[in-house]
Amino acid sequence: FAPNLQLIDSHTEPDNKNCSMFSYQVKLDLSVYSDNYSVGCDCSTIEISIKFKWDASLDTFDDPFTEEQLDIPSFVCPTKSAKDTLGQITAYASAQLGSQYCTHAFSVLVVWDTAHIIRWDQEGTLVMTPIKYGEDQTLAKFFSRY
């Protein structure tokens, strides 16, 4: 579904080249590159970052389109663990945008059986409605069109 992209397992290899001055390690679960020679995590050449969380309590985003959510002003979960996930993916997007000359960046947050495609730029962040990637082909279409 993504013949022009290379997905690299980088969860054990932090980006020490671009992010050595940070007080935390930038270790993406999957680093997506558009070349055939990248290894590990390199925020200066990455195309898309992918983060996996295996517990639903770590999901940063509520679905604002469910009936019980319509009266809630924010789709960001208010729990500490969800906010920690938001801080983590924001830090990773900041590392990517800070080390590349680009107008925007994409990332994907996968929480159990749901994925969120996220677009980051200087103005803010756009989060796509949740994708049940086992039932819906939207995530595969995103990668194939990227």
UniProtKB/TrEMBL annotation:
Top-rank taxon, per record: Eukaryota
Protein name: Fungal-type protein kinase domain-containing protein
Organism, as annotated: Pisolithus microcarpus 441
